[in-house]
Amino acid sequence: MARPILTAEQMRAAERQAIASGTPETTLMERAGQALAETVRLHVGPRDVLLLCGPGNNGGDGYVAARHLAAMGYTVKVAAWADPTSDAARWARSQWNGPVEPFASATETPIVIDCLFGTGLSRGLEQSLFQRLMLLVDNALVAIACDLPSGVSSDDGALLSPIGRYDLTVTFGALKPAHRLMPAMASMGRVVLADIGIDAGSAWFEIGAPDLPPLEPAGHKYSRGLVHCLAGQMPGAIALAANAAARSGAGYVRVSTSLPIDGLPSSIVQTGGADLQDERIGCILVGPGLGDVPQVLTLALTAPRPIVIDADAIGLVGEPERLQGHDTILTPHEGEFRKLFGESEGSKAERALEAARRSQSVIVYKGPDTLVASPVGSLAFAPPAPAWLATAGTGDVLSGMIAALRARGLGPFDAACAAVWLHGRAAEVAGSAMIADDLVEAIPLAIAEL
Ligand SMILES: NC(=O)C1=CN([C@@H]2O[C@H](COP(=O)(O)OP(=O)(O)OC[C@H]3O[C@@H](n4cnc5c(N)ncnc54)[C@H](OP(=O)(O)O)[C@@H]3O)[C@@H](O)[C@H]2O)[C@@H](O)CC1
Ligand SMILES: [K+]
C-alpha cells in the first residue's frame, strides 16, 4: 500500500488538525513516545538505554519513551542538551521521575536513542554537539533515531551537520521525505512508521505493491500490450529491455533493428522495418544502446503513441519543452537528468517536479532514491531498493518494464511507479550476486507474489 510522505510543514498542519479535532498535543506525544518504547522492546534486547533529549517536541517524545522503557524494566538514563522549551515537552519532562543528566556527561551505553531534534531542526548542530552525539551513536550496540537522526533536514534529506550510523529510525504519523532521500536515508537503518492517530494525506507518497491490470479471459497478444523497441548502435541493451518487457507481461514485444540481435528469445520479433503508425502499439521504447542517432528519437516522436525515453535518447531530446503534447515517460539517472534539465537549484523532489512540469512528461529520476514525478504534481518515492541494483543493464531492464506496463494499459505515472516497485522486488528475489540478466528472470517471480 502507498504511504503518504509529508514535509515538516504538512506534518505540523496535520498535527494542528488532529488537535483541532480533539486530540491534545500531549496525547500525540504520549502515543509517539510509547510507540518509540514499544519499538525498542520489539527489536532490541534488555540492555541499558540512554535517551538524549533536545529542547523541542522530539525531546518530549524522548521523556515519554524513557518513562515507558523504565516501566518495561529497562535501566534508563536520560541526558538533556537543553531544558524543554515547548509546553508539550515540558509536560513530558514533568512526567519523567528519574534523573536527567547534562548532555556533556552522557557516556557510552548499549542502546542510544537520539531524541535531540526531529522535524524542527532549523540549522546544523554545533560542532561539540554533533561530535559527541556521533561518538555515542557509533559506539552503541544499537542506535535509534526518534523521527530523524539529529542533523538531517526533514524535507530534502540533506545533512545539515554530520551524523552517525543508526540501526533503526522510528517515525510518527507519516514518513518524511528524508526517510526516502539520499544522503540521509543511507544512515537511518530500518525505518519504522508508528500510527499516532494523525490523518495524513499528501500528493507525495511512498510507492506500494502495485495492482496490475487483470488479464482478460478473451484477451489476445495485442490487447495484452504491444511494446515496440527501437534498437540503435549497441543492441545488447535494447535486447535486455525487450526481454524485461516480455517478462513483465506484455503480450507482444517487437524490436526494430538493422542488425540481427543474438540471444533474443524467439518470442521477441526482430524486424527491419519500423511502422510506428501501427495503432496496436501500446508503447514505444527508445534509448537503451541507441548511441548518437537522433533520427531514431525523431522518428519515435512522430508516432502518436505512448513512449518511454531512456538512456542515450534522453541526451538527444534537446529542449525538454519538445516533449510537450507527447505521452512520454523519461527515465534519467543523475547525469542524464542534468544533461537535459540543466543544473537547476532545489531538492531532488523539487527538481523532479519541475522537470515533469517543463516536459509535461512523467519523470523517473533514478538513483538509490528513485523518484517518479508527474506533470500535475504527484510525487512517488521508491521504497529502499537493494544496493546491488547498481550494476550494468538494470536501467535497461527498468525501461522495458515500464514500457510493458504502459502497453498493458496503466497510465504513465502508475506504470512507472509499478515498474519501480517490481524492479526493486525482483532484485531482492534475484539476490546480491545478480546481473541484469538474472533480474529479468526474477521479474515473473516478483509479479507472481502480488
Ligand atoms: N508533528 C507531529 O504531529 C508530532 C511531532 N512529534 C515530535 O515532535 C518533533 C518536532 O518537534 P518540534 O517542532 O518541537 O521540533 P524539534 O525537532 O524537537 O526541534 C525544535 C527545537 O530545537 C531547536 N533547534 C532546531 N535546530 C537546532 C540546532 N541546530 N541547534 C540547536 N537547537 C536547534 C529549536 O529552537 P530554535 O530553532 O528556535 O533555536 C526548537 O527549540 C517531531 O520530530 C516528533 O518527534 C510527536 O511529539 C508527535 C506529534
Ligand atoms: K532525533
TrEMBL record:
AMP binds at residues 366-370, 395. Residues 204-450 form the YjeF C-terminal domain. Coiled coil: none annotated. Gene3D superfamilies: 3.40.1190.20, YjeF N-terminal domain. Its EC number is 4.2.1.136, 5.1.99.6. (6S)-NADPHX binds at residues 57-61, 118-124, 147, 237, 289, 333, 396. HAMAP family: NADHX_dehydratase, NADHX_epimerase. In the C-terminal section; belongs to the NnrD/CARKD family. Homotetramer. This is Bifunctional NAD(P)H-hydrate repair enzyme. The gene is nnrE.
